[in-house]
Amino acid sequence: MTVAIDRATGKRRGDREPRPGLGQRLKHGYQKHWYAYAMIAPVVVVLGVLVGYPLVYGFYLTLTDANSLNTARTIGVNEIAATYKFIGLDNYADILWGPTAYDRFWSHFIWTVVWTAVCVTLHYTIGLGLALLLNQKLRGRTLYRLVLILPWAVPTFVTVFGWRFMLADGGVINSGLDMLGLPTPLWLEDTFWQRFAAIMVNTWAGVPFMMLSLLGGLQSIDSALYEAAEMDGASAWQRFRYVTLPGLRSVSSTVILLGIIWTFNQFAIIFLLFGSTAPDAQILVTWAYYLGFGQQPRDFAQSAAYGILLLAILIVFTSFYRRWLNRNEQQLAI
Amino acid sequence: MSTTTVEAPVNQQESASGTAPRRVRRRGENSRGAALASHGVLTVASLIALFPVAWLVFLSLGPDKDDYLRPGAIWGKMTLDNYLFVLRDTKFFDWLTSTMIVTLGTTLIGVVISATTGYAVSRMRFPGYRKFMWVLLVTQMFPVAVLMVPMYQILSGLQLVDNYLGLILVYCTTTVPYCAWLMKGYFDTIPFEIDEAGRVDGLSPFGTFARLILPLAKPGLAVAAFYSFLTAFGEVAFASTFMLSDSKYTFAVGLQTFVSQYDAQRNLMAATAVLVAIPAAAFFYFVQRNLVTGLTAGGTKG
Description:
The structure holds two protein chains of two kinds. By secondary structure, chain A is an all-alpha fold. Chain A has helices at about 25-60, 90-95, 100-135, 140-155, 155-165, 170-180, 190-220, 225-230, 235-245, 250-265, 270-275, 285-295, 300-325, and strands at about 75, 80. Chain A has a two-stranded antiparallel ribbon. By secondary structure, chain B is mainly α. Chain B has helices at about 10-30, 30-60, 80-90, 90-125, 130-140, 145-155, 165-190, 190-200, 205-215, 220-235, 235-240, 250-260, 265-285, 290-300. Chain B starts with 9 loop residues before the first helix and ends with a helix. Chain B folds into two domains: about 1-80, no CATH class; about 85-300, MetI-like fold (Orthogonal Bundle). Chains A and B meet through helix 1, helix 3, helix 4, helix 5 and helix 7 of A and helix 1, helix 2, helix 4, helix 5 and helix 6 of B.
């Protein structure tokens, strides 16, 4: 291709230990690629120290019974050494099969899956609908776009406070429903309505990202395709189905994956909306945080084990997703 | 049309300017009814997007802490007292300072290192490339719960707990992987011929990057900056664990302490929330011009 691209194969990341016998190749690779490594070095160092090592250490914690009573800590001038011990895979067994495992893990797991599926579906469909509307020639289009991005522009912890005012018993939403003669649910207390409210707020907050990404995707579709379709007598629906959707495929597969990952790990909205008052509305991430930081004694080991399980679920899902995309001859935009 | 207002890379600009007017004319032939329906839907959506924020602003003008239950009464007694109280008698400016240090630090460091990384993975096929991209993707999946305890111990080992730099580095770990991914997508849209020209003229790879590619990548950089800024600004979990002294709280933490300290005086909370939202929204509207272009490049190019 071009001189700017150096194509080489084989060796793994250069900051790892060379395997014996590959010294010569490594040296060659170093000479050829040192500037590439120099450019990614800061990221590798920061991620290695602040993500890689904590991950390994966190995984080790899941194999122990560490909690805030037996880890090393300092009280006043006294240093107390750690007394927690290695217990193997007991934490995982306890979470997945132990007594009351359904209440502690599986109910949260099911709710997390439902939450992710519903939220991402709503984000995507509403985002796509609005993007299609904004992609037309309309008066005031820029203004609409600016207003519609607002939920993304204002920080989550601010907007969630706004929603709490509105959802509170006697707040504006219930007053409005009351005026229309509709029932007024206890949004922040009843489990079903807590979940409903959480999905509603997250949808409100998450649509702008999808909308903007899809709008970008729409604007990059070659309009000659639309003309050709129209010449062939395609209806509006057919143009949408056979030109727009395939044209959006690459951007869609990327934003849907990101949406799933982000929603699955969505911490701020549920945490700020309910605090620790709603055990049944906690998704796995907030529940793990509650175990590790929201209760006494803090159960570091179980909390970390939940974290590892979450990560495993996401990695397995992403691998399958990529394989599925590859089978359909698509590439993820990475 | 947003794509025409920014410096888009060459191939994109061609397609945008070449095709947009024709498509627009075709769509413009839609009936008046369809246009009205579009306006109707967009207006309703805009109201939904606007209402919670507007409501917060409205409530912040009511002087009494239970006014949010009787919004009608606020009309008669609107006042800015809440704002005056927040600005004069709380640690608001301490929080503002620390939020700005942390947020701008994250944005600056994050954008610089994600740009170099994005350029490296866009232009150079070094060994370990695919693994590295996979690591960047997986890093975004890390739940807070698994990293919090070990991170805390590392940071206290490095004397970085309750320290701005510590929090900045922690935020970089969450923003950089996505930003690097995004920048890679953007750099891919810049023709490789530009790199070649730079090399022919005797620039080093770093020189090519800094002098030729970075200036062309401004929209992409803007989106990365925007994403870093908002992530750092709105983050709650790490900030509430790693910042210990109340003069170093960021807004996300400060607002929570404010609730208990002032006995859930919701009018003051609302006023603080509005004041907090202003810098974020200001920054947002500063960079939004480049937003769609940057996201397009990040999302549509492989």
